[in-house]
Specification:
Helix content: 25-40%
Largest sheet: none
Number of helices: 2
Length: about 100
């Protein structure tokens, strides 16, 4: 998305805040080095949604995949090249330990 991003991550050894700091910091460093972007690249803060079961995970993943379609950037989620819905990426399996849908 041109003005935000969504990420589904599993955090185990570090806090969510630290994980986001690594993502945003790494992107800011690379964008400055490769494209000449200057700081600040990101706004402060982030929002999070905790996922506790498989059904909620599927709903959030569908929301993320459909975001470029809702924004009228593509017709199908798989057409957006920067999305996990695009078939060019090898993805991790759905996290284990989510409660099954009731």
């Amino acid at each position: 998305m041109p003005d935000h991003f969504h990420v589904l991550i599993t955090v185990t050894r570090i806090s969510i805040e630290r994980a986001i700091q690594f993502i945003k910091g790494g992107f800011a460093f690379r964008s400055g080095k490769e494209f000449g972007f200057s700081a600040p690249v990101w706004e402060r803060g982030f929002s999070e949604v905790r996922i506790y079961d498989a059904e909620h995970f599927a709903q959030v993943r569908q929301y993320v995949h459909n975001n470029p379609v809702r924004r009228r950037m593509v017709n199908e989620p798989s057409d957006y090249p920067y999305s996990s819905a695009c078939t060019q990426f090898v993805l991790d399996e759905t996290p284990q330990g989510l409660k099954p849908a009731a």
